[in-house]
Specification:
This protein is mainly beta. The protein has one domain: Elongation Factor Tu (Ef-tu), domain 3. Helix content is 10%, strand content 41%. The protein has one helix and ten strands, in the order ββββββαββββ. The strands form two sheets. Strands 1, 2, 3, 6, 7, 8, 9 and 10 form an eight-stranded antiparallel β-sheet that branches. A two-stranded antiparallel sheet has the order 4-5. A hairpin with a 5-residue loop joins β4 and β5. The radius of gyration is 18 Å and the shape is globular. The mean pLDDT is 94.
Amino acid sequence: MAIKTFDPAQIAVIVGPHIVEGFANEEFVSVSFQDDDWEHTSGADGEEMRTKKNDRRAVMTLTLLQSSASNDYLSGLRAADQASNNGVVPVLLKDNNGSTIIESVGGWIGRNPDVAMGKSPSNREWMIHLSNATAFVGGSTAN
């Protein structure tokens, strides 16, 4: 029996030319696809049919420390998009511990994250909309 190892530092998230860093302590990246790949219907006589949906939209959520320099990059990307409609960039998530890879040729910031300030540091949660996203969700290969 092999023992597998997971190292969070081996998760790479690249937004445009920027390598994201300063991730929050717990869950720091998630991707949610908007729709099922197929629609399944049944006729009155029981004949079944499936229809391919071709909807590859997804949302990537990045949770960063308040101190992360990547907040500056993402804020700048959003500001550029607001000013010139020029904020769509490629996005990549790669698990270097294994074989999971999610990519999109076009991602953009949907809105600013909520901001909270207090005695303790807080996180910033960025939602990046992904167009035509592809995913291979694999296992860990690192020993």
